[in-house]
Amino acid sequence: MELFKTKKELKEYLKEKKDAGMTIGFVPTMGALHDGHLSLFREAKDENDLVVASIFVNPTQFNSKSDLEKYPRTPEADLKKLEGEGCDVVFHPSNEEMYPEPDTTEFDFGGLDEVMEGKYRPGHFKGVASVVKKLFEIVEPHRAYFGLKDYQQLLIIHKMVKDFNIPVELVPCPIVREKNGLAMSSRNELLSKSERKQASLIYKTLKFVKVQAGFQPIHELKNHVEREFKRKNMKLEYFEIVDLFTLEPLTTWLGSKNVIACIAVYVGNVRLIDNIILFS
Ligand code: AMP
Question: What pTM value is reported for the model?
């Protein structure tokens, strides 16, 4: 496995591979790797001649300094996991390498950034788009793999790729969960044992919502979800039932063909997100 810390060396290495006709799959991550990340990696490995993974905790997508500071970092274990999976190339740059000067690119997400994560984490998606655009320009992958766990992020990156005409195929990958249904996340590392147990309510609730979708009125379902989390002393930041493509909140099931339910909850001090596709 090749490890690169500079753009220049990585670009030179990949140019040779591309000139030899190899296809490149790319998996961007912030490290603290778990099976969710590795599932993207395995899919990339199946579909490409060479796989590049990046590990970079992107400061510009954190809207709180303490969140950035406490974000788990396990670079040595990550490299071992990637090596074990047969990863070809890892890009692990410093902040200075990625941001020699502040990024001033302007993005227009067409309103996709105004709801849910965008509403509660101002500037988050600008930071995500900015780092993913930079990484795409460095790696120039044929395909890039993203988890459906961060569904809103996937739509935003899709819009950015279209707007900037970036020649990459985005491959969405299913959410990988713990045995108790909790969506795998690097942030789960910050949960205590009992909090992990508590957090299983998130997926349990989403599954209940999926069963009720189309039957119980949306406002009643939303009230039910709010009550459930209140009863268990968990702070629900949002629970939204939205259009799968525009992310506009729905108030009725009538005429709604593509629908997803998205949630953000604090378990203790840890903010977790999840979603479930209701109709598509
Ligand atoms: P992160 O390191 O959190 O930025 O995530 C890197 C990539 O892994 C993103 O495309 C995430 O959507 C994806 N990912 C994170 N957790 C999961 C999961 N539980 N299942 C599938 N993909 C995931």
Answer: 0.98
